[in-house]
Amino acid sequence: MVSKIGFIGAGNMGGAVARRLAGGGHDVHVYDLSPAAVQSCEQAGAVAAGSASAAVHDADVVFTSLPMPEHVLATWTRLAPELAEGAIAVDVSTIDPGTVELATAAVGEHGHPFVTCALGKTPAAAERGEIPLFVGGPGDAVSALRPLFERIGEATHRFESAGAAAMFKLISNLVGMTNVAVLAEGYVLARAAGITPEQFGAALADTGAASFQSQVRLPWLMAGDYEARFGVELAAKDVRLALDAGARQGIPSPVAAQGLAQLLSAVAHGYGGQDAVAVAKVLDPDGKLLGTTDD
Amino acid sequence: MVSKIGFIGAGNMGGAVARRLAGGGHDVHVYDLSPAAVQSCEQAGAVAAGSASAAVHDADVVFTSLPMPEHVLATWTRLAPELAEGAIAVDVSTIDPGTVELATAAVGEHGHPFVTCALGKTPAAAERGEIPLFVGGPGDAVSALRPLFERIGEATHRFESAGAAAMFKLISNLVGMTNVAVLAEGYVLARAAGITPEQFGAALADTGAASFQSQVRLPWLMAGDYEARFGVELAAKDVRLALDAGARQGIPSPVAAQGLAQLLSAVAHGYGGQDAVAVAKVLDPDGKLLGTTDD
Prior knowledge:
homodimer; 6PGDH_NADP-bd (chains A, B); NAD(P)-dependent oxidoreductase (chains A, B)
């Protein structure tokens, strides 16, 4: 049914999704500014497109996976007139509902539906198709995409609209990343009280402070491993977008706002490219409690 | 070995522990200002003591389980001279390390060891002995108490000192209750975006925002059930004590500090006696998003 897929943006998550689709026998035409990113998709069976326009040409479904909402909106605004008749626009980036609205209007002007398919979990899980999808958009388009969604992810959570799906994804990162920020505070307090990393980790798992983040990121903090699985800068972006979307509706989110302040502080200190758990470093500038020198 | 146990304070958690000990065949003498609290322990086989002094008289081990650090310190200061020779002082309240230090000195002056045995989870779990214990104090005393700990809880997490154990418990509540505060923010943002409670709950479990609190308290928030399992006022107390202990060591915890501000705001709005999840109400004063009128 879907004979050609265009794919714009083959970064960590986008590349994994493009490879997953190509590996499932789909004819995927990938465009990315980075030749290396495109090559890794070619190795999985995708076709390299010379330009975004070439990727989109005659495609039944076009995906975008781009870093910032501005990129997503600019891309759809430029490509909307070039979409093939009946083509469905799908964004898998993490963007705000305001941008979803504008992108929906941009492609809608040319008769195309816009679908949000926000991606959960990690690039490694995405390579295996083991991620949750947060999906919203016109019902016909979402139904037509179902076989692709089943190849990309293992659970599809359906929302009333593309904007609601995008907002949900932002909210989940707002909550998750603020959980990281306060977990980092708890860890630093514990170290200052002479509690060892091992004591803290073992005992915390047995309390109401346990979380996905304490299971996954606390061991990295304990080991001084700040390699970015989800970087501080990206985390700050998502929390900022969620807060902004909430503020436009008059909703205060003061705890998450302070979480954002800490993430931005970590970026200002030069940790933007490290994992979100590096937010702990701003609480311990000389590294005595975290057992790491400033790097 | 332990022939008489004195127990001061038979509230929700303390009462459960006293009943657990009495039900295990120990000779437990309970004192509480509330006759009803004492009666519920008598039904489990405990003896009612006419006064704190009577509970303590000739006891080998004396427990305190009291609401505030001030109560714990005042009680030990007053009772220290009355403790039987060799008696061990054990506090199961949630108190700060500064108070632990003062109480240790107060009983130490009369030759008695002071042990912290902070309790995890809920009163219901405590009745079944299915709680984690966070224990610290002099090694000999902790060893002597081991049979009692095995009756009270199912896992004993050992810390270097009574103060470290107390601080750990405060930190776990600081993290857990701040997780609740930001979860509440995420929930209100989701409702404002038109996401249903059920969509939010199901999808969130599949993200990095999942936590003990989202598993346990989010269903209550979705159902508008604010019955206190752990009340806003108690939560605020613990986060305040943790922050104060950290601040004394020069440790900033800005996200948790904003969490405390939200809990205190909920208290100021009259929700102090409701469950901690009622912190959501201050974000939605007219109850439109939470689907509840102000009560």
